[in-house]
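wait is this the right file?? whatever heres the structure
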């Protein structure tokens, strides 16, 4: 950051209100376990009599912290995999009675074989061992519920054929690390098992004893109170909103460390501090790590519907050109801009950089324009 930019950052800090709310720390996380396949039996207690069958079983799963949704339970009932006192029941609304024995047969998971799909890929580097992709926003990395097709894995199968490493399993061939669907940028994929093992060890080491450099560019709301800093705050599942992650206390979360540096600050209407461009370097790689850590600082990422919902009204601070560009972005303004490591097979130092995609670059350029006073 040049001296002019530093002065702008300090001026923005001086205009910040002192009443900025402290981030709220989440309570203890609640881990859900995958239910084991096989037959299980339950005897209906007196206080459960009269409940619907699907609700009764869903309550048991919830009490056992199992990842068995009511929708999935309804499917099991309708498929004839639930019996009451030895007789198959397919009515999800059937009422249970005290003393009845409910038997549930949970089948083995049968992941679908991903199909090759001709999806264009931006290949930054490729050899016989690995491939580096510049992932566009909106592309899911691997198949999952609701995204069985149209993923990066489907594209890689078409591009690489049978050369992808199988260590990742049927649905994740070659995948060693991932970035969120709506995050863009650099991603390494293993084509051989040797490369997969080497990359897996590298990412598990988090660059502490081996060479690994991962940097992201993020547009965040407001102005950070220093030019550089580190967030060292463990992450776990949000105790209430299961789709979210959160900072949690002590050993209830997994270690998560993000180093950040302010690259640029942007003024809004009437000279108010509106947003900042921040470079984040990952020391660990947890799910949603940068998104949660920036929100924890009180500077969530622009466009992040999951972690910046309370900042939607801040769009009114942006200049007239930036407002519609933020609305059309329709995703978090986060980009994996740099990836560096030693080749897991040859040992050759590799380093790759990627410019943010056009939608994010247009927003950055618009934010640089001076805003008219209201």
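ok assuming it is, sequence goes like this
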């Amino acid at each position: 950051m040049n001296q002019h930019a530093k002065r702008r950052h300090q001026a923005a800090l001086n205009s910040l209100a002192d009443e900025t709310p402290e981030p709220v720390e989440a309570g203890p996380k609640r881990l859900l376990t995958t239910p084991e396949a096989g037959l299980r039996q339950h005897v209906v207690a007196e206080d459960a009599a009269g409940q619907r069958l699907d609700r009764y079983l869903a309550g048991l799963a919830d009490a056992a912290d199992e990842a068995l949704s009511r929708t999935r339970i309804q499917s099991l009932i309708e498929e004839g995999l639930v019996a009451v006192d030895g007789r198959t029941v397919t009515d999800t609304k059937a009422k249970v009675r005290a003393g009845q024995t409910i038997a549930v047969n949970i089948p083995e998971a049968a992941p679908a074989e991903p199909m090759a799909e001709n999806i264009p890929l931006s290949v930054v580097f490729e050899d016989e061992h690995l491939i580096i992709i510049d992932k566009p926003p909106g592309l899911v990395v691997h198949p999952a519920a609701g995204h069985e097709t149209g993923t990066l894995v489907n594209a890689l199968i078409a591009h690489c054929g049978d050369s992808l490493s199988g260590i990742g399993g049927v649905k994740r061939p070659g995948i060693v690390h991932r970035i969120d669907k709506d995050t863009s940028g650099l991603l390494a994929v293993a084509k051989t098992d040797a490369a997969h093992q080497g990359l897996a060890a590298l990412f598990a080491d988090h660059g502490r004893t081996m060479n690994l450099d991962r940097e992201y560019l993020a547009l965040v709301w407001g102005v950070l109170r220093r030019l550089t800093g580190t967030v060292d705050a463990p992450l776990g599942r949000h105790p209430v909103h299961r789709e979210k992650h959160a900072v949690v206390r002590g050993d209830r979360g997994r270690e998560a460390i993000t180093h950040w540096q302010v690259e640029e600050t942007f003024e809004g209407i009437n000279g108010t501090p509106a947003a900042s461009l921040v470079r984040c370097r990952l020391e660990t790689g947890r799910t949603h790590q940068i998104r949660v850590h920036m929100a924890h600082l009180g500077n969530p990422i622009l466009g992040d519907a999951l972690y910046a919902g309370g900042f939607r009204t801040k769009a009114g601070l942006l200049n007239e050109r930036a407002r519609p560009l933020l609305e059309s972005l329709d995703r978090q303004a986060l980009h994996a801009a740099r990836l560096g490591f030693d080749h897991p097979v040859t040992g050759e130092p590799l380093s790759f950089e990627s410019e943010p995609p056009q939608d994010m670059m247009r927003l950055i350029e618009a934010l640089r324009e001076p805003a008219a006073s209201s």
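Residues 193-205 form the longest helix (13 residues). so i think its the right one actually
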